[in-house]
From TrEMBL:
Solcar repeats lie at residues 14-108. Keywords: Membrane, Repeat, Transmembrane, Transmembrane helix, Transport. InterPro entries: MCP_dom_sf (IPR023395), MCP_transmembrane (IPR018108), Mito_Metabolite_Transporter (IPR050391). The lineage of its organism: Eukaryota, Metazoa, Spiralia, Lophotrochozoa, Mollusca. Signal peptide: none annotated. Belongs to the mitochondrial carrier (TC 2.A.29) family. It is found in: Membrane. This is Solute carrier family 25 (Mitochondrial uncoupling protein), member 27. Its main location: membrane. It is a multi-pass membrane protein. It comes from Mytilus galloprovincialis (Mediterranean mussel). The keyword Repressor does not apply.
Length: 162
């Protein structure tokens, strides 16, 4: 690789789209692996709500392990990934935007000190701003994800899908 080729590769590695793509791919892999735990968390959060007849679908509160095993046995193992698509879209938007926005805010707006350091207050402000912007963009996908996560429960209760 010549000097010019190396310089071109470095410029591309620092580009918005490179950062966006790489951070989004990493987040999508992580979300896919941990998604059954997210579904379980959502189900656990709402298990205490009253239902028709005043009891839960299983008739008792479940812990994490019983909830995940119950979803697999009562609804089918594939249902452990119900709602994964909007979760992946969320990470495609949220993580890609958040990481990329942070880089832009850090380099173009807040800028490093003359000695090359980047103070904690600037990092905090940049992270807060980038996270808020990413969450604002990705919020609708969270709503869709939770609705899809609850679909299996509605069916077990005999309710029509939404």
């Amino acid at each position: 690789m010549t000097g010019g080729d190396r310089q071109s590769a470095l410029v591309n590695a620092d580009s918005f789209w490179f950062t966006y793509t790489l951070s989004s791919i990493a987040a999508i892999i992580a979300e896919t692996v941990t998604y059954p735990l997210d579904l379980t968390k959502t189900r656990l959060q709402i298990q205490g709500e009253k239902h028709v007849g005043g009891h839960n679908v299983a008739g008792q509160k479940r812990g994490m392990v019983k909830t995940i095993v119950g979803i697999g046995s009562e609804e089918g193992a594939i249902k452990l990934f119900q709602g994964l698509t909007p979760a992946l879209y969320r990470h495609l938007l949220y993580t890609g935007c958040r990481i990329s926005f942070y880089e832009i805010i850090r380099e173009k707006i807040l800028k490093k000190n003359s000695d090359g350091s980047f103070p904690v207050w600037k990092s905090s402000l940049g992270g807060l701003t980038a996270g808020a912007m990413g969450q604002f963009i990705a919020s609708p996908t969270d709503l869709v994800k939770v609705q899809m996560q609850m679909e299996g429960r509605r069916r077990l209760e005999g309710k029509p899908p939404r």
